[in-house]
Amino acid sequence: IYGINTKVQSWPVSFRGNAAYTAAIKAFLDVRLGATAFLFTPPNNPQGLYVCESYTEQAMGAGMYTLSATFQQVFAP
C-alpha cells in the first residue's frame, strides 16, 4: 500500500437485540451495499469512514438475535 494512509483498521462488531433492533441495523447496512461509507467511532480511536460488505444474523432464542459484521476503514479520495 502506498500513500499517506498505509494502516487500515478493521473492527469486528456484534449487535444483540430483538428482531426490530437487528432489522434496523440490517436496513442501515443494506442501503449502503458495502460501497457507501459511514461514520464509525472505534473504541479508543478517532472517528473515521468505514464500510461493511457483509453481515450474518443468528437467532438466539426467545425472540433475540445477534448480528455480526466487520467494519473496514476507508479513506476519502
Structure description:
The chain has 77 residues and is of the alpha+beta class. The chain is built from one helix and five strands, in the order βαββββ. Strands 1, 2, 3, 4 and 5 form a five-stranded antiparallel beta sheet that branches. A hairpin with a 2-residue loop joins strand 4 (55-61) and strand 5 (64-74). It is elongated.
Low-confidence stretches: none
Q: Helical percent range?
A: 10-25%
Largest sheet: 5 strands, antiparallel
Task: Tell me the strand percentage band.
Answer: 35-45%
Write down the secondary-structure element order.
EHEEEE
Oligomeric composition of the shown chains: single chain
Give me the Rg, rounded: 14 Å
Distance between the termini: 15 Å
Shape type: elongated
- How many beta-strand runs? 5
Please state the average pLDDT score: 93
Structural class based on helices, strands and sheet pairing: alpha+beta
Number of helices, counting only DSSP H or I runs of 4 residues or more: 1
How would you describe this structure in keywords?
five-stranded antiparallel β-sheet; 77 residues; 1 helix; alpha+beta; 5 strands; elongated
SSE topology:
Elements: E1 10-18, H1 19-32, E2 38-40, E3 48-51, E4 55-61, E5 64-74
Antiparallel strand pairs: 1-5, 2-3, 3-5, 4-5
Short description:
The protein is of the alpha+beta class.
